[in-house]
Design a protein that fits this description.
By secondary structure, the chain is of the alpha/beta class. It has helices at 15-26, 57-63, 80-83, 87-107, 148-167, 193-207, 227-239, 256-267, 290-296, 304-335; strands at 6-10, 30-35, 48-51, 69-72, 112-118, 170-176, 179-180, 211-215, 221-223, 225-226, 246-248, 253-255, 272-276. Strands 3-2-1-4-5-6-11 form a 7-stranded parallel beta sheet, with helices on both faces. α1 links the parallel β1 (6-10) and β2. The radius of gyration is 20 Å and the shape is globular. The structure holds nicotinamide-adenine-dinucleotide. Nicotinamide-adenine-dinucleotide binds next to α1, α4 and β5.
Length: 336
Amino acid sequence: MDKQTRVLVTGAGGFIGSHLVTYLKEKGFWVRGVDLKYPEFSETDADEFEILDLRRWDSCLQATRGVEEVYALAADMGGMGFISAHHAQILYNNSLINLHTLEAAKTNGIKRYLYTSSACIYPEHLQEDANVKPLREEDAYPAQPQDAYGWEKLVSEILCMHYRNDYGIETRTVRFHNIFGEKGTWEGGREKAPAAMCRKIAEAKLSGKNEIEIWGDGEQTRSFCYIDDCVEGIYRLMRSDFHEPLNLGQDRMVTINQLADIIADIAGITLNKKHIDGPQGVRGRNSDNTKLREVLGWEPRISLEDGLKDTYAWIEEQVRLNAENQIQKKTNFQAV
Ligand code: NAD
């Protein structure tokens, strides 16, 4: 790169954002990260990191100053448990973040803008069967997302389309399908299925109980994409000339029970699965990658097993450290 392009990553303290910052630095960009918080699990690789609340217009103006490109990842989000219990909060916060970030990008003369949407925008009635037909980009309409999270993502996709048509900003829109990997939220209620499953299995292993709880009958299906493929896909889309929404995920569908079995195998334990009531989201979901292959000449290639090996190892370590800290706290308390 002759002159270092200056880019902004919003949500840079979060899971995908913190990995994307590292990837963009390796590619030679100057990177500003913005978030409500610093990355929890490692130092940021960003050249500059600002703590800002992007629901606020003045913060968005500050965040987008002096950069040429924006990767917009900031969002109030979590796994199914969180998304299905916080509709109003999610709709309010994410609408403000996306309206203000894009308008501020326009004000500051940003040339390229990548928006991170979700497979949650797809109509619920196309996802009622575990053996679901993979979702093509054009299946989004007529719209009927399951949650407010998906409705907001859909509106922000439309916003990007109009800012491109009306103001000439080169917008890109990516629809993620279940991204997983190390250094993501793994406890506390916002974690997503692969991280939650790794945590439960690590706890089951370390306690010797070898039993975990699974929400529903575990026959609901999903596809899962490893973080390294995700950041590469984001980058390839940003550099492409394709401006319509594009799926980014794996197209290998597994049941949640199968996901648990793969992780248990990695952990080296025989697992007893206890099925309980809980939020499950849609019954089945898979990505149709036809357009992804056509447009980028590429698709995610890291297998679920390979991605989970690294993810599980990292989460088991977190669970072990957490347990040691609890014991240490108890010992200190008893000594006082
Ligand atoms: P994440 O929760 O780890 O990261 C989002 C970050 O946004 C967090 O660090 C959070 O602090 C920050 N944020 C929230 N409100 C903010 C505010 N008001 N101002 C500034 N920062 C704020 O989530 P992630 O998994 O890294 O997701 C990144 C993007 O990808 C999000 O837009 C998400 O909706 C989308 N997405 C993710 C997945 C997935 O599987 N992880 C799937 C579909 C879509």
